[in-house]
């Protein structure tokens, strides 16, 4: 239960993906009624789902874009929790598309888009 000085406060959740293709199924799951709000070169989708205010956006690929979009979600919309949904690969045969994974260890590395005919080091 979220409270602020004894008054009920709506929980605000941000959902972020790197590409439009990653957030489209999320928006389809929530259905119609999300307002599109342009801000800082991005479009944020704002709506209410099960009494929670939801802000959905895609950041573009890379940690800088992700950081900027997350910061915008926090400062402009007051989100209290941020979930990242995205594409991943695995060598584990038991995993299926749409499985939810929670990381216990993380490794940071820079993106390499040379497989998509971009020069090494290019970040869109």
Automatic annotation (TrEMBL):
This is S-adenosylhomocysteine nucleosidase. GO terms for cellular component: cytosol. Signal peptide: none annotated. InterPro entries: Nucleoside_phosphorylase_d, Nucleoside_phosphorylase_sf. Transmembrane segments: none annotated. One of its GO terms (biological process) is nucleoside metabolic process. It comes from the Bacteria. GO terms for molecular function: adenosylhomocysteine nucleosidase activity; methylthioadenosine nucleosidase activity. Residues 12-116 form the Nucleoside phosphorylase domain. It comes from Helicobacter pylori PZ5024. Gene3D superfamilies: Nucleoside phosphorylase domain.
């Amino acid at each position: 239960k979220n409270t602020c000085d004894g008054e009920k406060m709506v929980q605000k959740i941000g959902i972020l993906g790197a590409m439009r293709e990653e957030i489209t199924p999320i928006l389809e799951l929530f259905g119609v009624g999300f307002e599109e709000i342009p801000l800082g070169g991005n479009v944020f989708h704002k709506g209410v789902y099960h009494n929670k205010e939801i802000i959905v956006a895609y950041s573009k690929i890379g940690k800088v874009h992700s950081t900027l979009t997350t910061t915008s979600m926090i400062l402009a919309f007051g989100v209290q929790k941020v979930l990242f949904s995205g594409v991943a690969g695995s060598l584990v045969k038991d995993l299926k598309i749409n499985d939810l994974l929670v990381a216990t260890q993380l490794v940071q590395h820079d993106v390499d888009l040379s497989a998509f005919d971009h020069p090494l080091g290019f970040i869109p």
